[in-house]
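Protocol step 4 of 6: structure prediction from sequence.
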Amino acid sequence: MVKIKNIVVFASGNGSNFIAIHKSIEDGKINGRIVLLISNNPHSKAIDFARLNNIKTSIINKDIISDLVRHKDFLLKELESVNTDLIVLAGYLKMIPINIISEYKNKILNIHPSLLPKFGGKGFYGMKVHEAVFKSKEVFTGATVHFVDEIYDNGPILSQKKIKIFHDDNPETIAKKVLDIEHRLLPYIVQKFCLDKIVFKNKKPIVIGE
């Protein structure tokens, strides 16, 4: 019997991916529970949703984030307090301290709104990604879930889903289509992690059943 995993979600904005994961848990599709939501934005809709659903929340302010030691200590204390098994970055716009990445190696997932390694890295987030994709006249775009390492959008890729870009698309329509993919892809990979169905072969992650 695979134990129920304790999931901590980090979110900065509307939290739609956080909500998608929560719904999958409620539907019995994920062998886990969200034990904490961490946000750098006290006005985030993700915070509102968490409080409505009795999920513990923690706000990390910019003064803490700007101090490397305090940032690391704050997060480590929060994560240890809920016996974290998995961290999910669901639209979180701040860099995770290296010490936390080391402590939770291959236990931090991120969702990115492009087909990495294209349109990834510092400065590529939200609509900035979709605008860059549109201007580059890409034929396809999509979403990527990967493990987090010390470099923005660089860790080992677990899964990608792509969509075709049509001649009448624009950054806004592309964003909507990619977000629809994210809402399916991220809960799916969280589900696989919580069932211990992500394994490493030759130092590369394999999703069993992909």
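Step 5 (inspection) to follow. Residues 134 and 198 are 33 Å apart (CA to CA).
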